[in-house]
């Protein structure tokens, strides 16, 4: 099972958790959870006017062995208007635009999609059962 929580945070709301949304999926091969502005394909949807987030920005996909990976999907622009960081405990890693990274089993952490032009972010917490 992969559980996700998402909060959108702007400069004035730093530290607030109002408006948090949740999604989960069983760890079955081919299961997918997406985060972005397009409600027709994303389980966790960001505000329409937050253009630093792509229509489908992050994709969590379960592999054949039941482990999850997250990918930062390339959008319509050659260069992204955001940065994505993966934080697991003391470990932090910047994701590559178009890149994918595995989520360790039995771990929890956060992905932060940070706007490069304004003090706002999309914070996606995750818990991947062991």
Would you mind describing this structure in some detail?
- It is a single chain.
- This protein has strands at residues 2-10, 21-25, 32-36, 44-45, 58-62, 68-72, 82-88, 91-94, 100-102, 107-115, 120-128.
- The protein starts with a strand and ends with a strand.
- It has 130 residues and is mainly beta.
- A six-stranded antiparallel β-sheet has the order 2-1-11-10-7-8, with no helix packed on it. The protein has a five-stranded mixed β-sheet with strand order 4-3-5-6-9, with no helix packed on it.
- It has no helices and eleven strands.
- The model has no long low-confidence stretch (mean pLDDT 92).
User: What spatial order of strands do you see in the largest sheet?
Assistant: 2-1-11-10-7-8
Low-confidence stretches: none
Distance between the termini: 8 Å
- DSSP helix count? 0
Q: Calculate Rg over CA atoms.
A: 14 Å
Mean pLDDT: 92
The topology string of helices and strands comes to EEEEEEEEEEE
- Could you say which structural class the secondary elements and strand pairing correspond to? mainly beta
Estimate the strand proportion. Answer: over 45%
For the largest beta-sheet, the strand count, sense and barrel status come to:
6 strands, antiparallel
